[in-house]
Amino acid sequence: MKQNLRNLTIREMQELAAELGEKPYRGKQVFQWISRGAESFDEMTDLPKEFRRKLADAAEIGLLKVLDVQVDPGDGTRKFLFGLPDPCDADGETGGDRPSGNALAIESVFMKYSYGNTLCVSSQVGCKMGCTFCASALGGFVRNLTAGEMIAQVMEAEHETGERVDHIVVMGMGEPFDNYENLSRFLRLLHEPAGRNMSWRHITVSTSGIVPMMDRFGDEFPQVNLAVSLHRADDADRSRLMPVNRRYPLKDLLAAARAHTEKTGRRITFEYALIQGENDRPEDIRALINALKGMLCLVNLIPLNAVKETGFAGSSRQRAEQIAARLEAAGITATVRRELGSEIDGACGQLRLRRKNS
Ligand code: SAH
Description:
This protein has 358 residues and is an alpha/beta fold. The protein is 37% helix and 21% strand. The chain has 13 helices and 14 strands. Strands 3-4-5-6-9-10-11-12-13-14 form a ten-stranded mixed sheet. Helix 1 packs across helix 2 and helix 7 (211-220) runs parallel beside helix 10 (250-264). The protein starts with a strand and ends with a helix. The model is unreliable at 89-101 (pLDDT under 50). Residues 129, 131, 133-134, 171, 175, 206-208, 229, 271, 273, 302, 304-305, 307, 347-348 line the site of S-adenosyl-L-homocysteine.
């Protein structure tokens, strides 16, 4: 199988150039072309034709197919459904009813914020975590994405929008810490000074709470923002909503979060999806305040995007604002996330699900 150039570090490209009988600096040139979004070898006009031909024999540029784009007319959010090269066979796509031969699909969401354009990137096809409110869990797990496939989401989003992506949040489909090696390669590729040169601080990774990987991530990427999907502050309730809590209960999760802020000196974000009547009652918020008191953190309140199949509904905006005020009064910084793309199946896994069911 041909190597995907979008997956390679600058050093690996230099090695590839050497293997093909070229000087290593040619590898750096290729890396720069790839980082700038080149989609064919013909574009690499400063490389000798013979080298381009050899390169095309040995490697490819892993492109994604745009299967669907939804644009929210209100805020300009664009949600992409991208097709991967591998066909979807009957045992690859659990719970799916698509005919074989269709591409596997992943989602990315392009959002415009005052501080810049942000892309929400998927890290896996499907997810193993099984959170009961989440659309990604419904389709089951199919496979990990490679770093090159994560990079490709950024490239294709830029290509389609004609705009630059300056922030990345790994909050799309999948659990990034269940695909740590590929995630870590992806982050290093984004940061590479000769390539995209993205600041660590412009990147956020969100986890459902895989504690050992949180520790490792803090050591290896101390400047990358870490977000933890908390959603409940009581063990029994959280385990019901998020099975991962049975393996890594709140005590361990909160200890890891505290250790992370101490190690990095940086604030950690807790995501709290507000589900009507489930985790938005006064007693739920009291438990949340007790759990987070004194921690260097921000609580991001997100009224749940309703997913028909799960039976959960989101809290009202007004309720979310009340809860934010309650947290602030207790000394915990809280924001209510602007519901970007709420008109377009904006939540994790929803676009893929809708397409499958249609
Ligand atoms: N697996 C990682 C990252 C992907 S999900 C994690 O769990 O953090 C990104 C965020 O969206 C998580 O906080 C997740 O719990 C949340 N989420 C999933 N489905 C949602 C929905 N329907 N409405 C609002 N948030 C949702």
